[in-house]
Amino acid sequence: MIKRIAVFTGTRADYGLLYWLMRDLQRASDFDLQVIASGTHLSPEFGNTMAFIENDGFVIADSVEILLSSDTAVGTAKSIGLGTIGFAEALRRLSPDAVIILGDRFEALAIAQTALVMQIPIVHIHGGEITEGAYDDAIRHAISKMSKLHFASCEMHRRRLIQMGEEPHRVFNVGAAGLEHLTRTTFLNRDALSDSLKFDIRQKPFFLVTYHPETVSDETPVDSYRALIAALDHFPDYVKIITYPNADNGSRALIPLIEKYAQRNPDQVVLAPSLGQVRYLSAMRLAAAVIGNSSSGIIEAPSCHIPTVDIGERQRGRTRAESVINCGASTDDIITAIKFSLSAEHQEKLAHCVNPYGAGEVSARIMKVLRDFDFKTPKRFHDIEKEVR
Questions:
Q1: For residues 12 and 232, which has the higher predicted lDDT (pLDDT)?
Q2: Domains delineated in the chain
């Protein structure tokens, strides 16, 4: 029996993590892949990355526009409402046997609540994690409670899902999905990356920089980004490859700051709304350090043995390797952290760094469970207290 599996992607980030699972579902004769694209994929302002998905050979089964020209909390809430309406129509038309959702963003919440009401089983990837600096943390846990099947990124997260009342036979530790690129993707060398970026980094060290707004912090994103820019100015010998932020509350206010910084420093700054997964990970593997507050610095960078400077509170609580350095959002704190990331003391740690998120080969594990799992089995609350008694 062929299972119709819808895979939802709302940003360049989750698409990169889902790529190999989507590819393997597409190739399998016992699955019918249905790609649902939304969020920043359909926005020219954020790089119109739906074209990346299509260029990779995937057919978009449905696309749902939800973003407003706003980055306020009200605008985000309205986008969730638009998503609920659009996803209801898409899921009614596609009628999947299950929908795969990765992570914790508001776009994911919109389709998850829609699938729940329509009684379409949800498969959740990367549940059980903690990121205290963003409301994504609450969204992730909410999606977990709506889901019938879970693929956690490490053992701690698997146990945390069970602690939340999820039945153990529904929760699998498969490792972090994005790490599969490290064994299956052909990366660009420094020459090829220079040609692709149209910027010479053949003889120059560089930082890979991605910063997203903190959505539950008292600190304004603009103040934090100005502090980051001031810190980067203290390292004139390093090129800065900077990508745009996600479509979070306050993100649009950051884009003019980034663009002006790039204009002032044409010999030092490469600015890209989206690098795409191959260029992004190729840059990560060659970078002197990954700087900002993207989850990629926590999950993927350690496997590349590259130091991460994690700024502020957005990723607070997330399981991390020794290669990750957390710092405050002030200019002095960021400068100190960058200097330490480049120090001989920290560089020595990188060679022996163990990534808690595994070593890839995630897609095959997920596919095996999807083949065997009976989505019609009623979900029950798993009460740990009863086990203790």
A1: 232
A2: 3-175+359-388 (3.40.50.2000), 188-351 (3.40.50.2000)
